[in-house]
Write a structure and sequence with these properties.
This protein has 3 domains: about 5-170, no CATH class; about 200-305; about 305-455, Heat Shock Protein 90, CATH 3.30.565. The chain is of the alpha+beta class. It has a 5-stranded mixed beta sheet with strand order 2-1-5-4-3. The protein has a 5-stranded mixed beta sheet with strand order 7-9-10-12-11. A two-stranded antiparallel ribbon has the order 6-8. The model has no long low-confidence stretch (mean pLDDT about 80). A hairpin with an 8-residue loop joins strand 4 and strand 5 (about 135-145). It contains 10 helices and 12 strands. Helix content is about 55%, strand content about 15%.
Length: about 450
């Protein structure tokens, strides 16, 4: 109970209300003391007026008048004459004098606090203005024991009332907070627990209903998060199913390509010059296809094989990539160029680097062909002190906005209409396996440039 939000709010409310009442208590007691003293001055004035009416009052009647007024002496100043109207024996000398004709608030509060903490009874002199201007001033002497007792009694009643007000106020606020805040928060927690039990179930997504602005914003944010998470989980399931299917296809395709690889060995023995020129490329293509099938099987197990780093002559590798793409663009208004130093060598996995460059060049080719305009694709490279930089640039129409948002995410970042985005996702993963980065340097109406950075 006390550890709950409503319980702590109840305690804090009670404490704060009590603090506020204590701040009110001090000036209230000071005001009560002033009223008490003014009342004694008024009673003393009435008693002195009785003496003025009859100048021959006996001592017993004077004592009764002083006792009723709860004072020891009464001095009345009238017509510039100061006259002792009523008097009785003084038990002790006067300890202090208080003038109530024009006191400040701080003086009243300070005098009240001093009176509360002073336990020893004292005799004090009090000066005030007579009621209805019946004289210039009135002065009385009185004991402080009854004054202090009355102030303590009044203060206890004030504190008791404050405690009752605090408890009632805190209880009402407790009910209000429980209804307006705690109950909706518990509802949100309940939705979260129910959703956590079955996040794929769209029926368990929270429906925002709160009327409090902050809670409504929290429910809206939770609704959005749960919706996106449910969609992501469904996408993950579809990808898992697709991965299983691709793994099965890759397994069978690998067996078919292995058989084709056996036939190419015989083709290489042909005497036809054209066959002799094309056979090595066919063998290399089939070998890469077999390796790709094996890599796909590993990717389906969420295990991209680590690169086998060797010294790779980059110019030859780029030439193979461009020759393969040229075969696919015969008759198209598309040209290829390369700017790679012939002596440039780098440490990389040749098959994986071939896949990366092939994916980038193929994406550029498809984008230019889809635009229906002429274009050029260039592969360039340069060697720096700490890294090798390979750039694939084209003069195509540039990447669409949607493709830029999820560029390296499978099934989200396709650069051409109908594309899956797998090429860039796989390429990015392969480059990261080399300790490098694949990034989009720029894109626009004048073309696109991708940069591969491999550490030396």
């Amino acid at each position: 109970m006390l550890n709950s939000l409503s319980g702590r709010f109840l305690i804090l409310t009670t404490v704060f209300v009590m603090l506020a009442e204590i701040l009110i208590f001090v000036p209230s007691v000071a005001r009560y003391r002033e009223d008490y003293l003014l009342d004694r001055l008024e009673r003393a004035q009435i008693a002195s007026l009785a003496l003025l009416a009859d100048d021959m009052l006996d001592e017993e009647l004077e004592e009764e008048l002083l006792r009723n007024a709860e004072v020891l002496n009464v001095v009345l100043r009238r017509n510039e004459v100061r006259q002792l109207m009523l008097s009785s024996p003084m038990p002790k000398p006067v300890a202090a004098t208080f003038d109530l004709r024009d006191p400040t608030a701080f003086e009243l509060i300070g005098d009240a606090l001093i009176r509360l903490v002073t336990h020893e009874p004292e005799v004090i002199r009090v000066i005030g203005a007579p009621v209805r201007e019946a004289g210039l001033l009135i002065e009385v002497t009185m004991e402080t024991s009854q004054l202090r007792a009355a102030m303590i009694d009044y203060g206890l009643r004030i504190l008791l009332l404050s405690a009752v007000i605090s408890v009632v106020t805190a209880f009402l606020l407790f009910l209000a907070v429980r209804r307006l805040l705690v109950r909706p928060i518990k509802g949100v927690v309940g939705y979260m627990q129910a959703y956590a039990a079955a996040p794929e179930d769209a029926r368990r997504i929270i429906e925002p209903r709160a009327r409090v602005t902050e809670l409504r914003e929290a429910e809206d944010a939770l609704h959005k998060m749960q919706t996106e998470l449910t969609q992501a989980l469904r996408q993950k399931d579809r990808l898992a199913q697709l991965g299983t299917a691709v793994s099965k296809i890759s397994h069978d395709l690998r067996n078919i390509l292995t058989s084709a690889q056996l036939f190419t060995d015989r083709i290489e023995a042909s005497d036809d010059p054209l066959v002799n020129r094309m056979a090595p490329k066919l063998v290399n293509s089939i070998t890469r296809a077999v390796n790709l099938c094996e890599s796909t099987l590993a990717f389906g197990r969420a295990e991209e094989p680590p690169p086998r780093l060797t010294v790779v002559p980059l110019a030859e590798l780029v030439c193979d990539v461009i020759e393969s793409e040229r075969l696919a663009t015969e008759g198209q208004a598309l040209s290829f160029s390369e700017d790679v130093p012939q002596a440039m060598k780098l440490r990389a996995d040749p098959d994986q680097l071939f896949r990366v460059l092939s994916n980038l060049v193929r994406n550029a080719r498809q984008a230019i062909i889809a635009s229906g305009k002429e274009g050029e694709i260039c592969v360039s490279a340069r060697e720096m002190e700490t890294e090798w930089v390979i750039e694939v640039s084209d003069t195509g129409p540039g990447l669409p906005v949607k493709a830029r948002e999820h560029l390296f995410t499978a099934f989200h970042g396709g650069v051409t209409k109908g594309g899956t985005g797998l090429g860039l996702a796989i390429s990015g993963e392969l480059v990261r396996g080399h300790g490098g980065t694949l990034e989009l340097s720029r894109t626009g109406e004048d073309g696109t440039v991708f940069s591969i950075r491999l550490p030396r």
